[in-house]
Amino acid sequence: MARPKDKAGVAMKKISLLIIVVLFISACKKEAVPPIVYTSKKFDIEKYSHLLKAQDNSNNYRKDTIIGDTTIVVFKSGRHFFEQKWVSNTAFFYLYDKASFKLLEQSTLLYGLRTGFTRKYSLEGKLTSEVNEDEGYGFNIPQLKQKIMKDYTVDIGDNQHVYLSKRKTLWGTRYYDVRISGRGNDYTEIKIHGTTGEFLGQEKGRYEE
Questions:
Q1: Which of 120, 136, 133, 127 is nearest to 174 (CA)?
Q2: SS3 162
Q3: How far apart are CA 14 and CA 8, in angstroms?
Q4: Nearest-5° angle of CA 13, CA 32, CA 37?
Q5: Chain-wide mean pLDDT for the chain?
Q6: Is the pLDDT of residue 69 over 70?
Q7: Residues 72-110 pLDDT 10s
Q8: Dihedral sign computed on CA atoms, order 136, 171, 131, 82
Q9: What is the enclosing helix (H) or strand (E) of 14?
Q10: CA 125 to CA 100: how far, in whole Å?
């Protein structure tokens, strides 16, 4: 039979162990808090001054230029500057505040479909939103490209034959919506499951003139 002093010692050990466990869990939770992310990226007004010079008096305009293997599209609309950099079939998109030149949003498109992370920032440069555009899409964009090419002999990167490509969600199901241009204003709308690559259906449509 244990003595009272022994029982008290065991109880104290259990309490001490419990405190250590609680402190450890609390420390782990604190370490799990993501750090605050900032960006200092700004619109390079000096780099594009030769493109903007002739358009200073216009509120809306667009200018394209080619630097090496990169096609750069710069345009202004309302309170923003827009910058797009095209390298092959990948487009890097940036949205800036026109008054401060500060970055407000950045995203990446592959064959016209959003991919990677879309990030939004405050005027102070603080990251306010981050969306993983590939989350839930086990059937990725290169696989979609191969499937459409195989089944319809159409390259989704060809703007002359593909009018629209989007990632959508309906009733919790992620899917691809691809519209292939036909004769005149006709098109074929194809739906592909975003996880399995399963063919969900297609229908004919016509663009309004």
A1: 136
A2: strand
A3: 10
A4: 150
A5: 80
A6: no
A7: 787 777 788 888 888 888 989 999 998 898 999 999 999
A8: positive
A9: helix 4-32
A10: 11
